[in-house]
Amino acid sequence: MEKVIKIEGKHKLRGTVRISGSKNATVALIPAAILANGPVTICGVPNISDVESLSVLLQDLGVVVDIKSSDRIVIDTTDMQNKPMIHEAVSKLRASYYFMGALLGKYGHAEIKMPGGCYLGPRPIDLHLKGFEALGATVTYDHGAYILDAKELVGTKIFLDISSVGATINIMMAAVHAKGRTTIENAAKEPEIIDVATLLNKMGANIRGVGTNVITIDGVDELSGCFHEIIPDRIEAATYIVLAAAAAEDVMIENIIPQHLESLLSKLHEIGIQMEVGVDRVHVKGHDGNIKATDIKTLPYPGFATDIQQPLTALLTQTTGQSIVTETIYTERFKHCYELNKMGANINVMIPSSFINGPTPLYGAEVCATDLRCGACLVIAGLIADGVTTIHDIYHIDRGYEDLDGKLTALGAKIWRETIED
Ligand SMILES: CC(=O)N[C@H]1[C@@H](OP(=O)(O)OP(=O)(O)OC[C@H]2O[C@@H](n3ccc(=O)[nH]c3=O)[C@H](O)[C@@H]2O)O[C@H](CO)[C@@H](O)[C@@H]1O
Ligand SMILES: C=C(OP(=O)(O)O)C(=O)O
């Protein structure tokens, strides 16, 4: 038996949608919280399956996760034990790798099997491991698990060959208790990194320079509990903005930080989407039927986010002319294009680019959410397609979109889940 999402397309969307807390921040903030010796309250936690998997992992370590309300949790490490992390939940998400930095930083020892997450082509973690080694840890790989050990972590200068989000956060967490100063050069600048450093600093860490490409961490002895509110999810926001541009007459997207979305908003203006950008909201007013193709190149923040190119591709099937999307982060991240072609799109993929020829009418078809943002792309395509679209492998979508069906239904979409025979 399999659960699928079904969407009947061509219903015009209207209304207001509220964006949840950022998945990519949350999945780092939760492991970061175990570095504290007192209770950490995190507010704005999205109800997504990645958070459920992390809660399972925390409980496996003896950490108490107290759910105070729908979006507020308290993480208490009083009875925590540093056990090997071999639970099957580790491979359900990418971010389980943050327990490497957090456990190494807290105990000088971590044992954890390979993380999972979306397959976007190879996703090595060599830069994380090199960073831990530079701080004085030994890294061994045995029976499918990484074992990290350090008698003492000592601050040092670490240059990242690639400005990796995960490596920047993981090294930051490992270094919070290291002796002396750690400097991360060519650090990633994504807003989620700033959010994690903000939490760690509230806990008592001494991290400066986040948001630039040089981060310094001066080691401290003790971290304590605190309260933290997660930033809004810029990728969920981007998904609803693109979706509104493609399928709406009038939609307000609330609880966003527009500055996190500048590369997308400027592209949408270029395409011909009518929008008004407020302090914490974007009002999308649709388009006059005359939207133009554009070219996109994904880049580290503040460049165009790789996570947004997939949802945007659904809209680009409706623009006039050829759009070229070039991936510089995950050069194989194009599986959504083959699924869109099953719905009537005309896209050629020549890695590292997709060539989208539009406009093409889309029609309902059986498609597969091969990864999280491919799923988001297919939802948008389903909303503008003629007929009913059936999306398989929706567990990917549930990793990162809180109450997708509820939010879309409130906007007037016809979307529902069905259990079908395998
Ligand atoms: C949980 C989370 O936050 N996930 C995001 C995070 O993933 P993640 O943190 O895994 O992505 P990275 O920023 O690390 O990856 C960027 C690039 O660096 C390469 N690389 C990375 C680490 C490493 O040790 N060696 C190496 O070669 C990757 O293969 C990729 O080509 O950033 C990606 C890029 O913005 C997003 O698509 C993901 O949604
Ligand atoms: C690729 C993504 O997530 P993860 O890194 O968790 O697989 C994503 O959020 O688009």
UniProtKB/TrEMBL annotation:
Pfam families: EPSP_synthase (PF00275). Phosphoenolpyruvate binds at K23, N24. UDP-N-acetyl-alpha-D-glucosamine binds at R94, R123, P124, I125, D126, L127, D307, I329. The active site is at C118. One of its GO terms (molecular function) is UDP-N-acetylglucosamine 1-carboxyvinyltransferase activity. Keywords: Cell cycle, Cell division, Cell shape, Cell wall biogenesis/degradation, Cytoplasm, Peptidoglycan synthesis, Pyruvate, Transferase. The modification 2-(S-cysteinyl)pyruvic acid O-phosphothioketal is found at C118. The keyword Transferase applies. Gene3D superfamilies: Enolpyruvate transferase domain. It catalyses: phosphoenolpyruvate + UDP-N-acetyl-alpha-D-glucosamine = UDP-N-acetyl-3-O-(1-carboxyvinyl)-alpha-D-glucosamine + phosphate. GO terms for biological process: cell division; cell wall organization; peptidoglycan biosynthetic process; regulation of cell shape; UDP-N-acetylgalactosamine biosynthetic process. The keyword Cytoplasm applies. Its main location: cytoplasm. Residues 8-407 form the Enolpyruvate transferase domain. It is an enzyme of class 2 (transferase). InterPro entries: Enolpyruvate_Tfrase_dom, Enolpyruvate_Tfrase_sf, MurA_subfamily, RNA3'P_cycl/enolpyr_Trfase_a/b, UDP_GlcNAc_COvinyl_MurA. It is found in: Cytoplasm. GO terms for cellular component: cytoplasm. Its EC number is 2.5.1.7. Pathway: Cell wall biogenesis; peptidoglycan biosynthesis. Cell wall formation. Adds enolpyruvyl to UDP-N-acetylglucosamine. Belongs to the EPSP synthase family. MurA subfamily. This is UDP-N-acetylglucosamine 1-carboxyvinyltransferase. The lineage of its organism: Bacteria, Bacillati, Bacillota, Erysipelotrichia, Erysipelotrichales.
